[in-house]
Amino acid sequence: MNRVWVADDEKSIRWVLDKALSKEGLDVTCFNSAEDLLETFKTEKPEVIISDIRMHGMDGLALLAEIKQTCPDLPVIIMTAHSDLDSAVSSIQGGAFEYIPKPFEVDEAVSVVKRALANIQDRQGGLTEQEEDPSNEMIGKAP
């Protein structure tokens, strides 16, 4: 099952995303801080992370940097109510998969998560096909 983690210090945002993503058949785990997410990240890994930028304690950009150090291909979707160009640019430069300003349309957020999951499956599927294709095998080597 596709695991999606949500980090946001606003309970209502966590609740809305949990309900909407669960309805789509996704396994959702919510965290009220980046620190709590990182603690669980030591032993488990999701397929996608959604994080608010501004939270108490560690912010979403610092969380993004931590995640990208260990799992550079893990899609992290950044959200913020403080939609300004600097936040968007910083999150994309930091490796965010997508930037969603709050308030957001729930369907849009679900669509972005599905795109992130499809992107992962495309990359994994492409590697598998390449590995299975015998025409890519080396037959010999040059002197």
Task: Write down the overall geometry.
Answer: globular
Average pLDDT:
88
The helix content is 40-55%
How many strands in all?
5
What's the CATH H-level superfamily name?
Response regulator
Q: What percent strand?
A: 15-25%
The largest sheet has its strands arranged as 2-1-3-4-5
Described by strand count, sense and barrel closure, the largest sheet is: 5 strands, parallel
Ends distance: 48 Å
The CATH first-level class comes to Alpha Beta
Second-tier CATH architecture = 3-Layer(aba) Sandwich
Number of domains: 1
Poorly predicted residue ranges: 127-135
Topology order in helix (H) and strand (E) letters: EHEHEHEHEH
What Rg do the Cα atoms give? 17 Å
What's the helix count? 5
In short:
The chain has a single domain, classed as 3-Layer(aba) Sandwich (Rossmann fold). It contains 5 helices and 5 strands.
Could you characterize the architecture of this molecule?
The chain has five helices and five strands; from the N terminus they run E-H-E-H-E-H-E-H-E-H. The relative contact order is 0.14. It is globular, with a radius of gyration of 17 Å. The chain has a five-stranded parallel beta sheet, sandwiched between helices. It has a single domain (3-131), classed as 3-Layer(aba) Sandwich (Rossmann fold), CATH 3.40.50. The protein is an alpha/beta fold and 143 residues long. It has helices at 11-23, 34-41, 60-70, 85-93, 106-132, and strands spanning 3-7, 27-31, 48-52, 76-80, 98-101. 48% of the residues lie in helices and 17% in strands. The longest helix is centred in the C-terminal third of the chain and has 27 residues, at 106-132. Helix 1 (11-23) packs across helix 5.
